[in-house]
Amino acid sequence: MKFLWLKHYFPRGIYARAALILLLPVVVVQIVVLVVFVQRHFEDVTQQMSDTVIRELQLLLAADPERIKEIAGPLEMLVVQREATALTDPDSRLWYDFSGLVIIDRLSAALPQIAVFDLYDDDVVRLVVDDPRGPFDITFDRRRISASNPHQLLVNMLFFSVLITAIAFIYLRNQLRPIKRLADAAEAFGRGRHLPYTPAGATEVRSAGTAFVDMRNRIERQIETRTLMLSGVSHDLRTPLTRMRLALSMLEDQDRLLLEQDVTEMQRMIDAFLSFAAGDNEGAPEQVKPEALVRELVKDAQRAGQPVTFHKIEGTGTVILRPLAMRRALDNLISNAVRYGAKAEVSVAVTNKSVRFRVEDDGPGIPEAQRADAQRPFVRLDRARNQDKGSGVGLGLAIATDIARAHGGVLRLGHCDRLGGLRADIVIAR
Predict the structure, then answer these.
(1) pLDDT per residue as tens digits for the range 277-324
(2) Which residues of 144-167 are buried (b: 16+ CB within 10 A; e: fewer)?
(3) Which residues contact 407 (CB under 8 A, 6 or more apart)?
(4) Per-residue pLDDT tens for 395-404?
(5) Superfamily of domain 283-429
(6) What is the CATH architecture of 14-148?
(7) What DSSP element (H or E) covers 33?
(8) Residue 417 neighbours by CB distance under 10 Å
(9) Per CATH, which fold does 203-264 belong to?
């Protein structure tokens, strides 16, 4: 489209756009009405009235000097003799006196003997006439030569425009408030928080709000069903695994160790399934200091014998998080880092707009073409990593990705130039 460039100059907020939709037609209509009214009324009417006054002035100026004042009386004009210096006075009028321009043009064209026009007073018109018998003033009522000054119209239009715009804006704000509440509820739900919301407003807004509430309830039921299903399956599998472990402990066969390793691996897989099922629903959202959360997580990892260090912190503040879910996501990133690398470093950066958790390692990393697949559930990329460090079920990065998205953020994988391994960032908007 040829007019796409205009989009850069239009406001993006709904309040600003609604105000523009409201004000633009009003301003255009007022300008058109003002131009037409000024041209048709003030200009045309003033010309007609000026022509009448011109004929009266011509009659007055053509009379004998002895009869000028006698004729000026019935014409309701005041004639006063002036000094010659009056001829040098400049023309004067008020800046908003548009009809004064028409008066000056019409009278100066018809009566060249008029030397000075004094229209500074809205109530009277004063003319200085250059006459061979000596200059004199002619003063008469302004209402005889022009309609009311247009500034009165401008003031009235401005006053009522502001009044009507204010009333319309108040009404419009009340109509847009349900949309803003719906947007806030949707944004909070996208970040894992549940804000109370009741559909309100116009019929269309109520329909959208009701659809959102139904969608939110269905998603919550689906998440609950998934969690219960995986938890039930994992719980049911733990009982036979426990019996198998007890039975194996009573065997003396050489294959017992291999079977116990298989049972341990199955137990670890079940625990991974439970972690994936829990997802971001673990704990309630609360104000959390990212620095304190990361320092505690690093201390726990160090006590467990993992080569993890706290690298640096940038900025301070608090952010609304599910601390248990975020600990789980960062713990998975740290576990992956120490599994495939010799050490891991954790850092956090807090800005006015976002918070970033970063885990770096010195391992082989993940090729750029495979980073998107690495965040999918049950996808293993052991060929790109060190197979001697163990294996997994492919849920570590998927869990971290799921938790980051539930907080309204994202998990970004990249290359760590400083350590040479994988760099995993969880970025969440504040």
Answers:
(1) 555 556 677 888 889 888 898 898 888 888 998 888 888 888 888 888
(2) bbbbebbeebeeeeeeeeeeebee
(3) 191, 192, 280, 321, 322, 325, 326, 428
(4) 678 888 888 8
(5) Histidine kinase-like ATPase, C-terminal domain (3.30.565.10)
(6) 2-Layer Sandwich (3.30)
(7) helix 14-37
(8) 8
(9) Helix Hairpins (1.10.287)
346-381 core/surface letters (b: 16 or more CB in 10 A; e: else): bbbbbeeeebbbbbbbbbebbeeeebeebbeeeeeb
Report residue 152 as tokens.
Answer: 């009165």
| Count helices and strands in the chain by DSSP H and E runs | 11, 12
What residues does each domain of the chain span? 14-148, 203-264, 283-429
- Extract the tokens encoding 329: 């996501």
Residue 109 CB-half CA count within 13 A: 9
Beta bridge partners, 425, equal: 358, 412
CA–chain centroid gap for 45, Å, is 50
Which tokens in the block code for residue 316? 């301070």
Strands (E), 130-266: 136-141
In this structure, what token pair is assigned to residue 167?
């009333």
Q: Which residues, at least 6 apart from 56, have a Cβ–Cβ distance to it below 8 Å?
A: 75, 77
Residues in the chain: 430
pTM of the model: 0.51
